[in-house]
């Protein structure tokens, strides 16, 4: 009976930065620099609470707060700020390198060996997503890599999760686990109604903050996922 329970887990969806690659604060610092360069001063703590969101949506929020929502001026500043952010982050990643979370790939292989599909979701656009996966050699390992630009709304909306399910041909949210390092990851998983809503402590947020969101488990890292599936899901 327990073994049958695990078989119902057909898909695990991973966030990227802070979940399967190390987060050294690059995203927040590059967002802050790009916004400041375009006349939008912002505290890094404000940005940190929005980690996991679509980066374009985050920029839009702060630009609107500073300048209002007049459409032409907003779009021009938004596009310029987003371009600056992407360039800064790409330069930072190329300069400092992209480091996988320890034993993340071991977890991927364990899941695949147990016939569980894997996918990613991210608040990055396609260019940064592909840069990261190419750098660490993970272009072919996932069923799908969903970016915030692939859906109408990023986190906390559940649409990236649903898009990953669609590509993986998984129709039942009770067969899905979503795992990430931010409150927005947990909110998206809860909004999607998936069976596993898991947080990890390898990102910018401490355990106390993550536990304030609806969740099923809080893990030290994705390296703990196989043992959790074995003990809590019965493999």
Question: Describe it for me?
Answer:
This protein is α/β, with parallel strands linked by helices and 235 residues long. It folds into two domains: 2-22 and 100-232, Rossmann fold (3-Layer(aba) Sandwich); 26-96, DNA polymerase, domain 1 (Orthogonal Bundle). The chain is 49% helix and 12% strand. It has eleven helices and six strands. The protein has helices at 2-7, 26-37, 44-48, 55-67, 71-96, 104-113, 126-136, 159-168, 183-192, 207-210, 225-232, and strands at 11-15, 117-122, 144-147, 176-180, 196-200, 217-219. It has a six-stranded parallel sheet with strand order 3-2-1-4-5-6. Strand 4, helix 9 (183-192) and strand 5 (196-200) form a beta-alpha-beta unit. The radius of gyration is 18 Å and the shape is globular. The chain starts with a helix and ends with a helix.
Q: What amount of the residues lies in strands? A: 5-15%
Q: Could you state the oligomeric state of the chains shown? A: single chain
**Domains (count):** 2
Structural class: alpha/beta
Strand order, largest beta sheet: 3-2-1-4-5-6
Name of the CATH superfamily of the largest domain: HAD superfamily/HAD-like
Largest sheet descriptor = 6 strands, parallel
Low-confidence stretches: 1-6
Number of helical stretches of at least 4 residues: 11
Helix content: 40-55%
Mean pLDDT: 92
User: What is the C-alpha radius of gyration, as a whole number of Å?
Assistant: 18 Å
Give me the CATH architecture of the largest domain, please: 3-Layer(aba) Sandwich
Task: Compute the number of strand runs.
Answer: 6
């Amino acid at each position: 009976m327990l073994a049958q329970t695990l078989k119902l887990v057909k898909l695990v969806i991973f966030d990227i930065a802070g979940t399967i690659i190390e987060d050294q604060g690059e995203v927040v610092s590059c967002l802050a620099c790009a916004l400041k360069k375009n006349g939008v001063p912002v505290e890094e703590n404000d940005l940190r609470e929005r980690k996991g969101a679509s980066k374009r949506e985050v920029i839009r929020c702060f630009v609107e707060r500073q300048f209002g929502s007049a459409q032409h001026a907003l779009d021009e500043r938004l596009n310029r700020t987003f371009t600056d952010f992407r360039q800064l982050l790409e330069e930072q990643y190329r300069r400092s390198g992209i480091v996988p979370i320890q034993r993340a790939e071991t977890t991927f292989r364990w899941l695949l060996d147990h016939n569980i599909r894997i996918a990613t979701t991210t608040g990055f656009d396609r260019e940064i997503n592909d840069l990261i996966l190419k750098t660490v050699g993970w272009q072919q390992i996932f069923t799908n890599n969903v970016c915030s630009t692939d859906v109408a709304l990023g986190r906390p909306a559940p649409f990236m999760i649903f898009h990953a399910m669609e590509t993986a041909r998984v129709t039942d949210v009770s067969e899905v686990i979503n795992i990430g390092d931010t409150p927005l990851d947990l909110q998206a998983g809860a909004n999607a109604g998936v069976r596993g809503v898991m947080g990890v402590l390898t990102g910018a947020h401490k355990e106390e903050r993550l536990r304030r969101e609806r969740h099923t488990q809080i893990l030290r890292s994705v390296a703990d996922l196989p043992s959790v599936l074995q003990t809590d899901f019965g493999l």
